């Protein structure tokens, strides 16, 4: 594994090709934030609301499905537009992959990616231990607690909601929680929040089980075992089978629901092992893998 993952790809493929998905993700994330901020700052209401519930062009409703489920659990029946908004969001993430929210939209990803980058540059090795399944237990709690107390308790501390409210209305004490997440990922556990604990990511991972777009290690015979893809992947274990499991009969498709479709494995691979697979190609690879 190189000291700086992607260096070989930069030399061999050029700067743009070794950073394109990273740059496109940042452009998307800042564009989403910018569209929300245009209203309060300039009176141009393209997106009104926040990532929990919003209106596109003051017409199309967009609702976070997890927020809607919490509302139901708390005993509050959502109005029709919220149901429609949740259906639109679910359909969108079905097309592009549920955890695309985590890597292409979520503002907290900017913080955790910064922590991961700095951790790598400083060579820090934290010793925190949390199972990657912990997030699914926390997701269950997010839905059970409202059913018990009648309040959407998670939304009071949800870092995504706090970040959005902070940008729109002033951060206040929310800065402390976001700073704590940064320090946790930096010093305690690599990718600790997004990769092990975040219940929002767990929810979108479940949505991702039927994603239309996946990444495939289709050129894995060219793999040089540089391990750069492992170094940058926020869900490192999902690469083992697709990249190195050919002899065990594992197909090249990264079918794991935890994949965020961030594209960094494509960026940093000098041997061009990875590619995006769409639609019928996904079904074909899954069929071959299950034989």
Along the chain, the helix and strand elements come as HHEEEHHHHHHHHHHEHHEHEH
Give the biggest beta sheet: 3 strands, antiparallel
The radius of gyration computed from the alpha-carbon positions, rounded to a whole number of angstroms, is 20 Å
Total DSSP E strands: 6
The proportion of strand residues reads 5-15%
Query: Which word captures the global form?
Result: globular
Distance between the termini: 33 Å
Low-confidence stretches: none
Q: Which structural class should the secondary elements be placed in?
A: mainly alpha
Helical residue percent band = 55-70%
Q: From the structure provided, what is the oligomeric state, counting identical versus distinct chains?
A: single chain
* Order of strands in the sheet with most strands: 1-2-3
Overall average pLDDT: 89
Number of helices: 16
Topology:
Layout lengths: L6 H7 L6 H23 L4 E3 L3 E4 L3 E4 L1 H9 L6 H17 L3 H6 L2 H15 L11 H16 L4 H4 L1 H11 L4 H15 L3 H6 L1 H9 L5 E4 L11 H5 L7 H5 L8 E2 L9 H5 L6 E4 L1 H11 L1
Antiparallel strand pairs: 1-2, 2-3, 4-5, 4-6
Protein name: Quinol dehydrogenase
Pfam families: Fer4_5, Fer4_7
InterPro entries: 4Fe4S_Fe-S-bd, 4Fe4S_Fe_S_CS, Electron_Trans/Redox, NapH_MauN
